[in-house]
Design brief:
Blueprint lengths: L5 H21 L3 H6 L5 H22 L14
Helix pairs in contact: 1-3
Length: 76
């Protein structure tokens, strides 16, 4: 059930979007940087998204979900 943990979905989503936004930030034109008042906002936000995505995946790796108890082990 590890595949359907919300941390994996959010983590991979932020990693994919982070790669895209970081790549856009690396290749920003001078006009785009000037429009953002000299801040390479795409680069910084892409790196932040990558950090968040990898943080979620690391959290999932270090604290995996517990398996569901089997029918015979449940107490009603």
């Amino acid at each position: 059930m590890k595949l359907f943990d919300v941390r994996s979905v959010i983590g991979w989503l932020f990693v994919v979007y982070g790669v895209i936004v970081t790549a856009l930030g690396i290749f920003d034109s001078p006009a785009e940087i000037e429009k953002a008042e000299g801040v390479r906002i795409n680069l910084w936000m892409g790196l932040a998204m990558l950090a968040l995505g990898f943080g979620m995946l690391l959290w999932l790796r270090l604290n995996p979900p517990k398996p569901l108890p089997e029918e015979s082990d449940r107490q009603d």
